[in-house]
Amino acid sequence: MPYSTRVTTWLVWLCVVLLATTASAERLEPDARHARASQVVAELLSRYHYRDQSIDDQLSEKVYSSYFDALDPQRFYFLQSDIDAFSDQRLRLDDQISSGRLDTAYAIFARYQQRVAERSRYALNLLDQGLDYTGEGSFQIDRDDVDWASSKTQLNAIWARRVTNDALTQTLNGRAMDEVISSLQSRYRRLERTLEQYSAEDVFQTFMSTWAAQFDPHSSYMSPRTSENFDINMSLSLEGIGALLSSEGDFVEIVELIAGGPAAGSGELNPGDRIVGVGDSLESIQDVVGWRLGDVVDLIRGAKGSDVYLRVLPASASGQSRETLITLTRNTIELEEQAAQAEIETIERDGQTHTIGVIKLPAFYADFNAANAGDEDYRSTTRDVANLLRSDKLANVDGLVIDLRGNAGGSLEEAVKLTGLFVDQGPVVQVHRSNGRREVLRDPDTGPALYDQPLAVMVDSGSASASEIFAAAIQDYGRGLVIGDQTFGKGTVQTLIGLERFGVGSDDQPAGRLKLTIAKFYRINGESTQLEGVTPDLTMPYPHGSEAVGERAADNALPWDTVRSAKYSRDRELDAMINELRRRHQRRIQTEPALQSVSTEAERVQKAREQTQVSLNRATREAELTANEQARLAAINAQLKATGGTPVDTLDDIDVSALPDVLLTEAAAVLVDLVELSRDAGQMTAKANQP
Q1: Is 546 assigned a catalytic role?
Q2: 508 assigned to active site
Q3: Which of 55, 190, 274, 460 is buried most deeply by CB count within 10 Å?
């Protein structure tokens, strides 16, 4: 799934994570420092989290269920009898954590180890019995909402289908049967070995993050090692492929692509894609399903300039997409590679050529080290965009698009300053803290806007946090159009609290940290950006529903609400034109071939995402895959033909970087509409004012 809320989902940068391991398969027990750490975490959550929630029996019951889900999100291992076996502790976890007793958490983990070992051996036994792709059975690929298996017999039947599906997936990707068997044998043996490598700290991190996740999806406990890696991540000097990964059951899933990194630059990876194989060459690719996240990261890491080969199941796989093989060159992600860039979109209409400037902004960044050192020419989003606006390239454009698609945020200060380039002065965003304090952040530049011509902001479901603050302010002021898809909906603020401040840890055993949500963002009109994000003025066709991605898909997300509006003045000029702009936009969506093909492809992908059952019959599955690939090829060729490109014969012939950005072209067309309507309105006003 594109946005996971499982608390075993430890978000890590590809190049840095190394989790503590142990070679022993003995039952793990909490370390002495964990007792005090659990008490401190409980106290911090109940006293300082934005959500006012007590550590009590009601929360204990939620944590009890969520901990089983965290360990086994797809319900492949635990039986209902396992859930029942510890049920007498359901209402006692709150008392235990407050007193520093963690026996129940480690006992449940020990049961989990036992069940995984049983499943590993059962799967290997199934492979020994042979595989059959001729039946008419099916497999449910999304199992996070199903009931726990009532018996081992029922779980055996589920695993028989899982093993068949795993094998059929590899077979349909062109692998010989002996290769499939060998690959799956390694996979299932790895399931058991993986848990043997867990440390007491790993279990503690999982359990304490289960508690934190009951308050909101962005709060979590970070072990000392994870905390150390988090600091390295923030330096923005990362060697790897530039992607944020998580564990989702037995799979490693891409959560976010880092702007400027090899993964984002390839155009071949997307959030939600699952990495199933990794190697330094085609011949050395290893199946990594069931591996620890840290081990997969180690395999992906390597020397700058070297290649890594990934086998990937697309996010929309659902049994209707084959694995893809992607080659990336490892690199260091530097600030320069995240910098704003400008280009020109040309729109021909009624014998006239209109030029629309486009500023692509992958992140809200600032070189804080250079700024603190007194460098007057330090790089930042606002400085770079201002320089582009003053450049010859954008000197005579008819309008401007700020492209925030996929921009997951960054510096709040830069979002505020950037808004000031497009509005004269005033508030940009409100911050409400858990202690009731309200702060209104304003444009620090009281002078006139640097750019005051027609403006649009492009967003999608990957536009989050600082991107939402900027887009919301532009929309609230009536300064420009917001075009695209519903944004992510992250309207919360987190802080890191080191537990050593509370007597946890020592020089030999450092303490972890708690990532805690302490505030919420609100638009200047008083509405929160939390959960709902920013709703565009004009929508574009995207391959998902608004409820399936972003904060709306998260468990325990803080609610959308409102506060009093800040004092600001809205420009009403756009209000008079918005209905006509929507009418023209929808007419192109329905009639222009390139946009029609995008809409058709979006509908196809959405249907594939919604499919939760896949056939285990080889002929049926092959036919579905072929039909899906033909539909995708037809959609891409329709776009190429409509934009003057050369159609391709197969999906392998597609150069992703050369595909037309149909939605960006449409955003430019909308701005031309705005230019025309503004001109006509000005002419009518001039006539009306004539004596």
Answers
A1: no
A2: no
A3: 460
